[in-house]
Design brief:
The protein is mostly helical and 354 residues long.
Amino acid sequence: MSAYTPNNLSTVQKVNATYSKRRSARAFRTSKEARNYWILLLALMAIGLLSSYGLLVYRNPVPITSPSFIPVVERRAVAIIAMLIAAICQSLGTLAFQSITNNRIITPSLLGFEAIYSTIHTSMIFFLGASAFIHFSGVDSFLYQIAAMVLMCLILYGWLLSGKYGNLQILLLVGIIIGTGLRSFSSFMGRVLAPSEFDLLQTRLFASVNNADAAYFPIAIPIVALIATLMLIHAKRLNVLSLGKEVSTTLGSKHKFGVIYTLILVSILMAVSTALVGPLTFYGFLVVTLTYQAAQTYDHRYLFPMAFAIAFVILTSAYFLMYHVFHAQGVVSIIIELFGGVLFLIVILRKGSL
């Protein structure tokens, strides 16, 4: 006699039908999580816009009726645009990098972007002198720095990921070794510089939106806009790549191609950010860690906007508070890196491994 009578069979069918209705492939598990996401995202954007407005007009030394009011606002707008570009680059680049490596601790800085940046500037002042270092600015130098950083990363990708035994772990280890070597070389050159030359060098090596030049924007903005658009289009594939090589391959995704494509986009974003405002080692890690806490989803179509909103709020609010409240604008990047480094140590200690 069958274990399922007609009555039992109809009951099982009803249960399966009810369970099927509850199952969903949506980005959020419940409508409450989706509602909380949009409320938090809109609130963060409002705070970011409010902080930006405060940076533009708060305590402006020139009266609003004066003809000089607009030029002062325009100069402050350069810093806002630099913050916007850095927020997009760091948030999208770090989030995508952690997704393809399937690790929420490592950051793209492990590939040596900051080390290349410091080596370029230290070598310039070491071999050519302070006068050449001062004149090492403008669009040509900006493009040179981007090209150098992206070229090194492309060489690493082509060598380490296209081989028979190539994998991300070897890529990260080689990136760490190269970065450490370049930092040691830069440190050696920095120690033999004259005190005045060393002080001049440090102004470039500390990240600051004041390093940004409005002449860079006609190049940086189109590049960042294009790469950010490609990254958003690539969001659904990142959802699959984040599941790991075996799972993504089983689901029909070309894992190696997807990883290399993502790394190229990440390298361009990080190169633009580093060349524009300087090295921000733990800023991206801080942003992405907070993003995963704020957005209860694994869908990159929603993680990217939240990461950008958090990144923009951190920069604008930090600069507003340090500039207008504590009167210490020059230490903003140091404070951000300090909080990011402390959060990194907390996550390491709680997780127990890389």
